[in-house]
Write a structure and sequence with these properties.
The chain is mainly alpha-helical. The chain has five helices and two strands, in the order ααβαβαα. The protein has a two-stranded parallel sheet. The protein is flat and about 40 Å long.
């Protein structure tokens, strides 16, 4: 299937939105990007984009999951794996994600709690 078929078919609006979203999220450079869908659709979504190593598609570890509950477990397991791999690379002086904190780019909460976080927010 060609990219043009998706753009003009019944899935065209969703496909265009998904492709735009994927392009935007790649620019943010999170530690983990997961894409759910068929391999053919994923290839078309990534076409023309500079797909980083953090892109996992199809999303989830290959555990032979059946049904939404097991698929959720495979995705959660892949998130844990990505978090552990990221933490071990940082500990060994490997690649450092400048976003700072967790899988989603947030910085860890400060030790003093919310007060410091609020003052940092208003200082920007």
């Amino acid at each position: 299937m060609r990219c043009a078929d998706y753009w003009s078919g019944s899935d065209g609006h969703q496909f265009r939105r998904d492709k735009d979203f994927l392009a935007a999220i790649i620019k943010v450079a999170p530690v983990y990007i997961g894409v759910m869908g068929s391999k053919a659709r994923i290839v078309l979504l990534a076409d023309g984009l500079n797909a980083p190593d953090s892109l996992h598609a199809p999303v989830g570890l290959p555990i032979g999951a059946e049904g939404p509950e097991e698929i959720a477990v495979s995705i959660a397991a892949e998130l844990v794996q990505a978090k552990r791999n990221h933490a071990s690379r940082n500990a060994t002086g490997g690649i450092r994600y400048e976003g700072g904190g967790d899988l989603f780019g947030r910085r860890p909460e400060p030790a003093q709690g919310g007060t410091e976080a609020v003052s940092r927010t208003f200082a920007r």
